[in-house]
Specification:
The protein is α/β, with parallel strands linked by helices. The protein folds into three domains: about 1-65, Rossmann fold; about 70-185, Diphthamide synthesis DPH1/DPH2 domain 2 (Rossmann fold, 3-Layer(aba) Sandwich); about 190-295, Diphthamide synthesis DPH1/DPH2 domain 3 (Rossmann fold), CATH 3.40.50.11860. The chain is built from eleven helices and eleven strands. A five-stranded mixed β-sheet has the order 4-3-5-6-7, with helices on both faces. Helix 10 (about 265-270) links the parallel strand 10 and strand 11. Helix 7 packs across helix 11 (about 280-295). The chain is flat, with a radius of gyration of 21 Å. The model has no long low-confidence stretch (mean pLDDT about 95).
């Protein structure tokens, strides 16, 4: 989307606006360029590429959602092929915001191929069947009703979180690669990684608690509670604050492990980034907390 930024800026300038383009990395709808807007005294933020996730009170935010329409013949071909490959009848369907405009069509195609389709709205997301890296509740809410899950969209960023937090077979229809893959086997891989991180962290004495200042990732209360809970199991915690974490930089802190309260995907995708210093998710920490507490009692 940064490739399109100059074009949009020119259009807005023709309307008489002074335009500032955020050059910071953007990791999602949680990552609004609020500080940049305040510094340049902007009156409005236009956020491209995501749907609304959080309420910003300080300044008006307009969300320009992406919309990717898959050609009808290809869409029909992919859903037909997927229906033949996936032996289950009751399907939980999830996608990202780019494909919401074709959700109704996708559901109808599955139904024509004999599938029963289940969808839900997430806790943080605003649209039916939409999942995010930090909110896969559109999948978890319907798990008891379905036999398998299907994610429609490109890449593994979105479906990976849903895969890890569910237990049913999981398939991905990638319209860009034009293929249908089952990714169920990845679940066990990530569970083993999680168990290994918890095992290493059980020997840690000091923890760095990651606190992001991004508007949709700021969880200070949660971080403060974790620091107090660390004391209860004889551990020491330090609050590390940043907007975006540089893992080369935080590796210099003399702590034994980290606990992430920012984007939950950090613990999944960056959990082993720092050698011998695991990055635990909040859920992994509290699993460890209960484990160590039970040993002491």
């Amino acid at each position: 989307l940064k490739k399109e930024a100059l074009k949009y800026a020119k259009e807005l300038e023709k309307e008489g606006n002074e335009v500032f383009i955020s050059a910071s990395p953007c990791f999602g709808a949680c990552d609004i360029a609020l500080e940049e807007a305040k510094k340049v005294e902007a009156e409005k933020i236009i956020h491209f590429g995501h749907s609304k996730l959080i309420d910003i009170k300080e300044i008006e935010v307009e969300y320009v959602e992406p919309k990717i329409e898959i050609e009808k013949e290809l869409l029909n071909q992919l859903i037909t092929e997927a229906s033949q490959k996936i032996r289950f009848k009751k399907i939980g369907l999830v996608t990202n915001v780019s494909h919401i405009s074709q959700l109704k069509e996708i559901k109808e195609l599955f139904k024509r191929n004999g599938k029963e389709i289940f969808t839900a709205n997430g806790e943080r997301t605003k649209k039916e069947a939409q999942i995010l890296g930090c909110d896969v509740s559109a999948a978890t809410k319907i798990e008891k009703e379905v036999e398998a899950f299907v994610y429609f969209g490109g890449g593994l960023f979105h479906p990976l979180g849903a895969l890890i937090l569910t237990n049913k077979p999981f398939f991905v229809i990638d319209p860009f690669q034009r293929k249908i893959d089952e990714i169920t086997n990845l679940r066990e891989k990530y569970k083993k990684i999680s168990n290994a991180k918890i095992s290493i962290a059980s020997q840690a004495k000091t923890f760095g608690i990651l606190v992001s200042t991004k508007p949709g990732q700021f969880n200070l209360e949660k971080a403060l509670k974790i620091k107090e809970d660390l004391k209860k199991i004889g551990k020491e915690g330090f609050l590390l604050v940043a907007n975006t974490f540089d893992f080369n930089e935080i590796s210099n802190f003399e702590v034994d492990a980290f606990i992430n309260t920012a984007c939950p995907r950090i613990g999944i995708e960056e959990g082993e980034r720092i050698k011998n210093k695991p990055i635990l998710s909040v859920e992994e920490f509290y699993f460890l907390f209960k484990l160590l507490n039970s040993k002491d009692s």
